[in-house]
Amino acid sequence: MNVRGKTGSVAVIIVTHNSERFIYKAWESLEKQTKKADKIVIVDSGSKDKQYLAPFGQKENGRLILAGDDIGFCKGNNIGYQALAPEYDYILLLNPDAFLFPDFIEKAVSFMEEESNKKCGAVSGTLLGYDIDQDKPTGRYDSTGIFRSLWGSYGDRGQGKRVGESSLNGVEEVPAICGALMFLRAEALAGLGQKREIFDESFFMYKEDIDLSFRLRRKGWSILFNPKLSAYHCRGWNPDRSKMPRQFRLCSAVNEMRINWRMRSPLGVAYSSCKYLFVKMLDL
Asked: Which residues contact 78 (CB under 8 A, 6 or more apart)?
């Protein structure tokens, strides 16, 4: 689709990895948008059986890229971004297990086009939990922005709380937003560096959304949370971290340590280092 000269054009990037349980519902939510995406790029990162992806490569506004091995969330999004023509005004990063409310894109574009939001580099909205097994909302929040604790850990505000328990007081600037749902201004991404990349690929996965948010902020862009933008996300809230695969916990701890180092936070580096050592030595 030629978007040259079109105002408010939107491209969507979805990175899949054995995502057959979710991707059809995610695509359905895109098809139901009151403002359609101009392009949807799916990048597969090492799915065992890729047959479930075949229909998406045949869609009129879709493109399917089979990247081969498990290249990770960061590189997958970068490949999708590099496959896009540079004319798009906005890039929506969407997890395959995230399902948009029908007016999400229309509201997001309208919000970003407002004169008062011209320095907004990225916006996200209210992510609500969704149980894919029961095919219904959990009634709990998934994320309303990412915040840093005093000691240097990062987490999604409101995660696991029942809807209505948290007070959402309109649009606000937040430290970072969740990578499952990032509506990005293309102009802001273009100013991040000479490489046409969204994420630092050395992160592979976990905390890359925090790093991107901080890099945008350092370039003078604001990161905003708008509660009127809504989507569902199928992430759970298991309080037992030991049930999370060890290599994932190690990756998360290392990436958090790197972010605290970049933020020149001695306390944060010390905390993240301890977390890494506990996982490495004691498998906690």
From this structure: 196, 197, 198, 199, 201
pTM above 0.85, yes or no: yes
| Of 60 and 42, more confident | 42
Q: Indicate the burial class of 258 (C-beta count within 10 angstroms; 0-12, 13-18, 19 or more).
A: middle
CATH 3.90.550.10 maps onto the chain at 10-237
Nearest to 97 by CA among 208, 207, 16: 16
CATH of domain 10-237: 3.90.550.10
Tell me if 144 sits within 8 A of 166, measured CB to CB: yes
CA gap 134, 132 in Å, rounded: 5
C-alpha 223 chain-centroid distance: 13
| DSSP type of residue 203 | G
Q: Are 158 and 150 in contact (CB under 8 A)?
A: no
Round the CA-based radius of gyration of the chain to a whole number and report it. 18
